[in-house]
Protein 1
Amino acid sequence: MTHFQSVEYVDLPAVFHLSAKHSQDAAPQKVNLTVGAYRNDSGKPWVLPVVRKAESILAADDSLNKEYLSMGGLPSFCDAAMKLALGESSIAIQEDRAVALQSLSGTGCLYVGFQFVAQFYKGPKDILVSNPSWGNHKLMIDRIPALNFKQYTYYDPKTLEVDIEAMIADLEKASDGSVILLHACAHNPTGIDPSREQWKRICEVVKKKSFLPFFDMAYQGYVTGSFDEDAWAVRYFVEQGIELFVSQSFAKNLGLYCERVGNLTFVSTNSEVAHKCLSQMKIIVRSVYSNPPAHGARVASMIMTIPELRAEWEGYVKEMHQRIRRVRTSLHTALKTANVPGSWEHILTQNGMFSYTGLTKQQCELLIENHHIYLLKTGRISMCGLTEENVKYVAAAFKEVIEATS
C-alpha cells in the first residue's frame, strides 16, 4: 500500500532535460548551448586559479574547523558581498540600514526573500516579473501560496530590444505597492538590459507606485567586466532612497557553482527596521536549512577581502567577459559570412551569458534533432557553449533550419 498513488511524474526543467540528452547523444558533432555555466575556449568548465589558491590557503589553516556557521552565515563574507553590490561608500551601509544574509546561491536568496515578503510584507503580494524571465522565478513564486505571480512586458520580439514603453505601461497598471523583480544586469534569458536612461524611467515608476524592488544579480561582472558598472542600477535605486532587496550569486563570477554561495542584502530606510527584518530572515533560514555551508563562503570572503587575491579575481572576471564578447563577435561574423537570412546585430548588442536568437520553436527543434545543437526552444542560447571550433558549424545549421522553415 502507498499513500502517494495519486502523485504524477513531472518532467525535468527543459535546461536539465536537454543537457542530459546532449550528454547521451553519440553524434560526433554536437553542441550544448543550454546550460548557464561558463566554459573556456576549449568548451570545458573552468575553476578560477584564484579559487584554487584560496582553497590551498584554507586547507593549510589548522585553525579552521567544521563547526556550523550561524543562521546568517559567515559575517566577513556577508559584509564583503554587500559592499560588492552596493559599493564601498554606500550611504545605506554608512547609515547601518543595509543588512546581509548568506544563503544557498542566488536561488536560496530569492527563496528566503520571497518567504519573508509572504510573511511580513504589508503591501500586495503580487510579484511582478519580466516576460520572459528565468524559469525558476515562477517556479518558486507559485509554490508560496501567499504570493501571486504577475508579468510585465519586457522584450519586443520584433525589435529584439527592451520594449520600454509597454513595460512602463504595464507597471503603471499594476497595483500600488507590488513587489517588482528586476534583473540587475545580463537579463536572463534575453541578454537585453535597459539603458541607464531607461533604468531612470523604471525607477520613477517604482517611486510613484511605491513598489518594492527585488533585484536578482546573478551575473555581476559579466556585462562590462566591472563589478561597479554592472551594479549601477542597484546603486542608483539605493541613492534614490528606495527600500529594496538584492540577491547575489557567486556561481558565475567566481565559478563556485556547486558550492552554492549567495548573499541576500536588504536595504531599508531605517536602521532598526533593517535589523529586525534580518532577524526574521534568519528564522526563515533556520526553518528551511538551518544554516549555510562554510567552504564556498570562506573562499569568496578571502578572495574579496585580500587585495592581491581580489585584483587577481577581477582580472579573471574581465577575461570571462572578454571571451563572451569574442564569441558573440565570432558568431555574428560566421552568420554574416554564411549569408544566414535575417539581421544578427542583436547578437552583438545583447549582454552577458545568454542570447535570445529570435529562432522559432520549430527551428530550435530542427537544430536539436537534425544537427545535435541543443538549445532552449525559446531560442535562448548560452554563449559559453560556443568555441572557435564549433561556431561555423552552428552558423551553417542556423542557415539550414531558417531556410527550411521560410
Protein 2
Amino acid sequence: MRLLATMCMVALVTLGQGTLIPGSTVTKNKLLYDMQVELNDFYTEMVPEGSWDANLVMGINMASGDLCKIKNLRKQKDDSLMVGRMCKNSFSQLYNKNENKCSGAFCDTIGWVQDEFIGIVESLIIAKNAAAVFDILEGEIYTPLMEWSCKCATDVMSSWMSCKAGIGEAKIWDLIRMSGMMDPKAAYLGGEDFKVFWENIIVNEIPWASMNTLLERMMSNLCQKSEDQDKCYGYFYKTVTKLFDWYMNSVSKKEAPAKVQGYPGHCSKFNLTHMTDNPTFTGIKDALVSKFCVEECSDLYQDVLLGCCTASMIQDEELERSLVEIAESLTSLYTKIYPEEEESTTGILEEYFGYAQDAMEMLRNPTCEDSTVEYELRACGEESSEGNTCVQLQSAMMAIKQQMESQCGEITDPCANLEGVKKKKVPTALCVDTTA
C-alpha cells in the first residue's frame, strides 16, 4: 500500500532539513530559520531604513492611481495605464453589478500592501516557533485570500476572459519600452515588434480556457464544506500543518510520545532520518508505506489525509485534465522563448508528471494488501458506503418502527396471517420481527 507517500511527497520534499541552528528565532528548526533569513534579506532590500524603497513607492502609487479608479464611479470611464480601456470597462461593470464588489480587489490589494504587508513580514521574521508562523500565514494571508476567492475568483476571471483581447490598449507597454526593462531586440522575438510579440502571447498563447476550467474546479472543491462543516480550504491548511509536524517529528532523534492527540505517538513518526539530506519521492514512499497500513493508525490517516475534501479533489478528472493541459502549454511556450532549455525543461516535466500519475493512481485506489486496513474515498456530499450495509439498514428500520409505534400505537407484522403465495407477494422488508 503506497497511498500516504503520495499525500506527503510534495510537502516533505520541499521542507528541507530539520537540523538544529544555534540562535534561530524559530524553535530549533533550520527550515524556518532559513525562511526568516530570506525574509529579512527581502525586508532589508525592499524597506531600507523602515520605509518602502523610493522606486517601489512610485510603482505602488502609479498602480493605486490607475486601478483604484475601478471603485470610483466618476473615474470609471477614464483610460487605464495598466489594463487598457476595454478591461477597465469590464472590471468597472463587474464592480457596479456584483454584490461582492469583486474587482475592487485590485485597489484593495494595493492598500493592503501599503498598510499591512511590512507589518506581516516583520511578524514572520520575529516569530518564535512554527505554530506562530502558521497562525500568521493563515490569519493574515491564506484565509482572507480564500474567502475572497470563493466569492470572487471566477467572476474576475470571466471579466478578464471577456476583455483580454484589448490588453494592447494599455499604456504600460510604452513605459516598459522606455524603462529598458526588456530587450526590444531579443533573439526570441525573431525580429517581431516587442509589443506585438507579447500581446499575442498574453491574448492567444497562454492557455486561458484551461486556466479558467482549473480555477472553476479548484473553487468548487476548495469552497465546499467538509465533514466538520469547515470549508475544504481550511481542511487542507490543517493537513499541511499536520504534515509539517509529522515531518519534524520524523527527523527528530527524540522518542515519540505515547499519545499524540489521542493516537499512538508512533503514528506521526516515520522513518525519514536516513534521507533528510536528499529526500526523494521513492524514498519517502518506501518509508511511509510500511506505516500506512498499521491498523491503530488508520483512523488518523483517514481523518487527516483522506477526508471528503481530498476525495473530491483527486476524483475530479476535469481538474486533472486542465492542469495537464496548462503544464504542457506553458512548457511549450517557455521553450519557444528559451529554446536552449527545451531538453532540460521537458525532462523535468516528464519526471514530475510521472510522479503525479503514480500518485493519482494510488490515491484513487487505496488498498492494503497485507492487512485488514481499509480506506474510504468519499467525496463531500456523497453518502457513506457504510450506511448501505445490512446492519445499518436494519438499525434504520427499527428506528422507524419505534417512531411509528409512538405515533400510531402498536404496529403488527403485516405478514403474520399470510401463508404461501400471498406471503411471497409482500415485500420482504415489510416482514419484520415485531419482537425484535
